[in-house]
Amino acid sequence: MIQQRANFDWMLKELADGVPGVEMIVVLSADGLRIARYGGEPDAADRVAAACAGVQSLAAAVAQELPHGDGEMKMVLIEIDEGYFYLMAAGANAYLAVLSDMTCEPGRMGGMMRDLVVRIGAHLTSPPRRNGQTV
């Protein structure tokens, strides 16, 4: 189990420094609660985390329609006006989200996110909650 708002700041900064154009990085639980962030305002990071819960749920539903595979969402990339949105599974019930401008190269970002997840994924486990309490 990770502690809420765990101190991943230096690792998230390393990701931001490794790829030009990063605007915000958010580590979140599957139910959309922010665990950690780098860049951006806290309220914006909370909104991104909440929106990511819907995106990962939608991606998982679509993934289950493929005949071969485990039906789990691994990574989502959305090109938005003047930038990109990345969402990657990062541990049991945890995700890594990045917002970047257009200078960010998607292939490089995907590789850097994967490297970060490998390094910290074992520490990114968010247990399910019921009525706001950890189950």
Automatic annotation (TrEMBL):
Protein known as: Roadblock/LAMTOR2 domain-containing protein
Organism: Streptomyces gancidicus BKS 13-15
Domain Roadblock/LAMTOR2 intervals: 9-100
InterPro entries: Mycobact_SerProt_Inhib_Rv3364c, Roadblock/LAMTOR2_dom
Protein origin, superkingdom: Bacteria
Pfam families: Robl_LC7
SMART domains associated with the record: Robl_LC7 (SM00960)
